[in-house]
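Give me the 3D structure for ATP synthase complex subunit 8.
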Amino acid sequence: MPQLNPSPWFLTMLLSWLTFSLIIQPKLLSFITTNSPSDKSTTAMKTTPWTWPWT
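Predicted structure for ATP synthase complex subunit 8 (55 residues):
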């Protein structure tokens, strides 16, 4: 069965992973996120309980 023979595809997979790991990934990681997370206040909002009309 030809799909079980890794010989023609192993080099292609290896080269694609090396290309991604060595060239594309550092370029993608160099971008600075434009929407950095900010610290939110930890104060809790005052909530009022809901009054049900049938109770």
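The chain has a mean pLDDT of 79. Let me know if you want a second pass.
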